[in-house]
Amino acid sequence: MSELKHPSDEEDIKRHAPANAPAVASHGAAAPPYDSASLTSGEVVCPPHTTERKITTKIDLHIVPFVSVLYLMAFLDRVNIANARSFGLEADLGMGGDQYNTALTIFFVPYIVCEIPSNILLKYFSPRVWLSLCCLGFGAVTVFQGLVQNYSGLLATRFFLGLFECGMFPGCFYLLSTWYRRHEAQKRFSLFFSSTSLAGAFGGLLASAIGKMDHMRGYRGWRWIFIIEGSFTVVVALIFFFTFPMFPEQTTWLRDDEREFVKARLKASQGHSGAERKITLRDVKTVMSDYKIWLGGFMYFGLIVPAYSYAYFAPTIIQSYHYDPITTQLRSVPPWAVAFGFAMIVATVSDWIQHRLLFVIGAICIAISGFAVLLTVHNNLPVQYAALFLTCMGTYSAMPVIVCWFNMNLGGHHRRAIGSAWQIGFGNIGGIIATYSFVSSDAPFYHKGYAICISFVCLSALAVVLYALAVVWENRRRSRRPRDLNLTESEKVELGDLNPEFRYML
């Protein structure tokens, strides 16, 4: 370390790279720059029997469909209570006042607290085992939710639903980030994240069909919604126990030379993953001492409030336009479908020009415009319904870009596992706020709810701008410093994105 010329760099390395870290390479090898240009430098060579495009397609087919279906099931089982509400849930269980809002809130207690522990367990057990177990758990709880006889039973099932679902979102994002380079990740992240849009659309269609089973075999329609959708999730979980993907280092469907190529291209883009090291409490403390991690949490937190407000209360808002229950469910489908298409367009263009900031700000502006219309227009149903499209499109296209941007700017398995879980866990505190933003006493105009949503979207925009300034400043600071600091590979692994060779994406 005698060649270090800047005391601040040396102090940073000493603080984040323990002296007893296991060495994995010699001192003399300097890692290539962490950007896509490294892939054309001749250091990462594709196996002769295939091409990089074929390998990427193979990865897509083995990863994206599985995580998308998994999260579709999770989100569907989470928000189908909004559909059940339209079919007599509250009346049958004797609920009144803000009890529905409380039932929504209790879900987030274990969901928030257990995010980081879940990602640590995911790394320990492997994604296939851990995420399949979680899927089986929340599928079974959803079935039980359709069998409850009172409000207390509903609260209990909502609590355990949050406990089993806590690992889905950060776990799947964590898994995706270990397979793709930064400039190609957004399309995959958005396709996965847009499972929420598909769940909203599919949930509305399914609820409208299941609602016609009202009183069949003595069960009300809302019970059938939970029972049928939960049973389907259980079947999916059993299949996933044998088929769900794992980390690149653990996979068996790649040849040895293909696996080494995938690991090499990821290292060129993101640095050494450090998949072989365990995550410790010291790692958690180190990651959480980085102010950029906190900004990442606030970026997501600000959008969770409008996102869950829409997911949980869109059927209620649409029903306030004097539609019957079946028509309400059908009317809830188009905004979700349009949001899915728009999110994929945003993701594709974002990956193409390798930029995130402007797409987030643009989508946020669309969301604000939608909520502003809903806040001020109360006597024009076509305009109000069109505003629902804007809020759904803007919110659900900005969120996946924020999560992808933040996750792919984290280097190393340990920093990514902790950082991604923190962002999702902290952000979901906004879910608690969302559950009390639209209360029955504010119907049918919901001035308070729309004003709260606009405020939190603006908070997200502020955090986005601050995060962008932070990464630009950090990149410029590192560019002014010597690039080759004679770091060992083990020190680079420990530093992750704090490595002076790492460059953040804007």
TrEMBL record:
<feature type="transmembrane region" description="Helical">
    <location>
        <begin position="333"/>
        <end position="350"/>
    </location>
</feature>
<keyword id="KW-0813">Transport</keyword>
<dbReference type="GO" id="GO:0022857">
    <property type="term" value="F:transmembrane transporter activity"/>
</dbReference>
<dbReference type="InterPro" id="IPR036259">
    <property type="entry name" value="MFS_trans_sf"/>
</dbReference>
<dbReference type="Pfam" id="PF07690">
    <property type="entry name" value="MFS_1"/>
</dbReference>
<feature type="transmembrane region" description="Helical">
    <location>
        <begin position="63"/>
        <end position="82"/>
    </location>
</feature>
<feature type="transmembrane region" description="Helical">
    <location>
        <begin position="383"/>
        <end position="406"/>
    </location>
</feature>
<feature type="transmembrane region" description="Helical">
    <location>
        <begin position="189"/>
        <end position="210"/>
    </location>
</feature>
<feature type="transmembrane region" description="Helical">
    <location>
        <begin position="357"/>
        <end position="377"/>
    </location>
</feature>
<feature type="transmembrane region" description="Helical">
    <location>
        <begin position="159"/>
        <end position="177"/>
    </location>
</feature>
<feature type="transmembrane region" description="Helical">
    <location>
        <begin position="222"/>
        <end position="244"/>
    </location>
</feature>
<feature type="domain" description="Major facilitator superfamily (MFS) profile">
    <location>
        <begin position="63"/>
        <end position="478"/>
    </location>
</feature>
<protein>
    <recommendedName>
        <fullName>Major facilitator superfamily (MFS) profile domain-containing protein</fullName>
    </recommendedName>
</protein>
<dbReference type="InterPro" id="IPR020846">
    <property type="entry name" value="MFS_dom"/>
</dbReference>
<dbReference type="InterPro" id="IPR011701">
    <property type="entry name" value="MFS"/>
</dbReference>
<feature type="transmembrane region" description="Helical">
    <location>
        <begin position="293"/>
        <end position="313"/>
    </location>
</feature>
<dbReference type="GO" id="GO:0005886">
    <property type="term" value="C:plasma membrane"/>
</dbReference>
<feature type="transmembrane region" description="Helical">
    <location>
        <begin position="129"/>
        <end position="147"/>
    </location>
</feature>
<feature type="transmembrane region" description="Helical">
    <location>
        <begin position="418"/>
        <end position="437"/>
    </location>
</feature>
<feature type="transmembrane region" description="Helical">
    <location>
        <begin position="449"/>
        <end position="473"/>
    </location>
</feature>
<feature type="transmembrane region" description="Helical">
    <location>
        <begin position="102"/>
        <end position="122"/>
    </location>
</feature>
<keyword id="KW-1133">Transmembrane helix</keyword>
<keyword id="KW-0472">Membrane</keyword>
<keyword id="KW-0812">Transmembrane</keyword>
